[in-house]
Amino acid sequence: MIGKPIYGKGFKGLAAYLAQGALPTKERAKDERIVEERRVAWSYSRNLAGLDPETDWKLATRTMKATAAMSARTEKPVLHLPLSWPAADTERLSPEAMRYVADRLIEELGLGEHQAMVIAHDDTEHKHLHLVINRVHPETGKAWSTSRDWERINLSLAKMEKEFEFTPVDHWGVEKGMERELAREKDRRKRREPEIGEKQRALREKDKPLIPFGVEDRAPKIRELSAIVRAATSWKGLDKALGDVGFSLRIKGQGLILTDGSHYLKLSQLGKDIRLERLEERFDQAFESFDLEKARALEKDRRVRMPKAPEPPNTDGMTPYDRRRALEMYERAKEVFEARARRIGMTDDPISDLDIADGELRMWIDAEATHKGARRRMRQLEREEFGLVARSDRSRDGMERKKDRFVETMGKVFTDPLAAAERWSRIEKARGRDEAEKLMMQQPAAFGDLKGWNLSGLKTPERRQAERAWRKLIERRRAYQFAIHEQEAYWNLLRDTRARLTAARQRYEMLTFRDNALEPLPQIITSLIRKRMVALERVTEEMIWRSNLASDRKEQLEAALRKHKEKKRDLARSRELERETGVYRDFFRAKKPERHLELGKRRDRDRERDIDD
Question: pLDDT (tens digit, 9 = 90+) per residue, 491-547?
């Protein structure tokens, strides 16, 4: 595979050339690359509300242009990345494989959340496609860095060539890129640092970042987890089997990851045949639907097992003494409720209690991740709706202006412009647009009586004005028709966006755990963390390793116990430092006035000595 990054300033000309084979009308005179034949095999878009680049490229480029305007410092926001395969791979390539290569390349370059159009052409013997990507992020407004772009692109392509057994191509910078990647991987594993995209996601959602598994740990995990995924027959069975080995599924970007709470693997890393779409087809259920059912089942089970939380008393009309007594009783009842909540599920087996508490906390953290993903999706659709409403209003105003201009031009040419326009529409519907325009240019009198034409041979001002307007009729009618189609496209897009927004809002409301719920979601997570802390206080590392749990589970519980002890030490140290800081602060505050007084007395004695001398 060969990929060559090209950077540019404008989206419109490039998209028109790729989608239609011709440049826009105003740019044709400046460029001779005009090919009128259709050559698009298939196309799709990413993060552009499902717009088809072949038919809706104008709307897509306007959206990308508006997003690029968020970064005033980015002079060239367009990344044009053509991808081509050798002729030997033509028979083995399918649209699904080409689409997977494009999506994976975009994700590995860190452009998964950016707007992009993917257009495949079939006009040459080499199968190839074009990636048109907006370097500016639609939410943060930051531009994608072009540092070592050739190296990163070639490194990703070389990996996929080896994985899918494509014809190998010499790529520049691959060896150095592999050395740098291994060095970064070792350094990241040594320092236990997450990837940059995961850091940004965690910072945006106020969450703990996940760290990808290192090279040494990845291979055994992939073998174990891929066998579990291939043997599963439903999402529920897969979730249970993964839970038995301490893993769970989460949505990340446009795919899934498998995480143990601190590290993760991408679903696509488990094998070529393991993809989200294929699993949904095999299980006959969308993962989002299963994820929602799982979260609701967790909340329902907790409502059954949990005692009812006390309600704050209504102190209106009470005396100060009664109000104080009511609040004291409420605080006491709240302490009893929290103590009972921490003790629920506790038995005489500390290891079993810790295993259950840690597993329950992990499930609720997954539910929280699902909740945050639904909220992020809802906010993204709200921004899309706001932008579409504004663009639709501007498009409607432009359509009215073009309509007035077309009607005005028709009025200068025909004595009855409405009848002429209606006749033009009938001819266009019966014979086609090209035939109707050709008839208008050759025999305009076929559409109605012309102004100034009844005086043969005389060039009256009215006739000269009609001739000038007649030359502009086709252009203005096309502009008006395009404005109508554009307005219809905006309305259809806005209707689809609002439907998806309604569904996203319903999903978010179902995941907020407010209606008929005992506690809000953050309070549930906090109580489960406290419950696990109680369980961790009852065990030791020796007890964990003597238990009958699986080795992976023992490692996870040992890591949790180690973190718990570190936090206890940090907390004790911070309290000690706070106490020492307070003592020092009080000491120096108490001595400061006396010190200043002594300095003042010494200064007065020196002054008197100078006077005496």
Answer: 888 888 888 888 888 777 766 655 444 456 677 777 778 888 888 888 888 888 888
pTM above 0.85, yes or no: no
CA–CA gap between residue 50 and residue 47 (Å, rounded) = 7
Q: What torsion, rounded to 10 degrees, do the Cα atoms 366, 371, 376, 379 define?
A: 180
DSSP H/E element including 16:
helix 12-20
The neighbouring-strand residues paired with 323 are none
Instruction: Please name which of 352, 375, 360, 369 lies closest in space to residue 527, comparing C-alpha atoms.
Output: 360
Q: How far apart are CA 321 and CA 315, in angstroms?
A: 11
Statement: residue 198 has pLDDT above 90: no
Strands across the sheet containing 248-252: 211-212, 263-266, 255-259, 248-252
CA distance 45 to 54: 10
CB atoms within 10 A of CB 69: 12
The mean pLDDT of 182-204, rounded to a whole number, is 57
Q: Containing H/E element for 335?
A: helix 320-343
Whether 193 shows a pLDDT value over 60: the answer reads no
**DSSP of 489-510:** HHHHHHHHHHHHHHHHHHHHHH
Six token digits for residue 321: 């003494």
Closest by Cα among 532, 530, 538, 536 to 561? 536
**How large is the greatest C-alpha to C-alpha distance in the chain, in angstroms?**
126
Instruction: Identify the bridge partners of residue 206 per DSSP, sorted by sequence position.
Output: none
Tokens of residue 322, six digits: 């009664």
CA dist 444 to 146, 432, 458, 480, Å?
56, 16, 18, 19
| SS3 state at 322 | helix
Asked whether the beta carbons of 43 and 100 are under 8 A apart, the reply is no
Contact 487, 396 (CB under 8 A): yes
Chain length of the chain? 613
Label the pairing between strands 263-266 and 211-212: parallel
Structure confidence at residue 130 (pLDDT) = 92
Secondary structure (3-state) at 79: strand
Supply the pLDDT for residue 265: 82
Say if residues 498 and 388 touch (Cβ distance below 8 Å): no
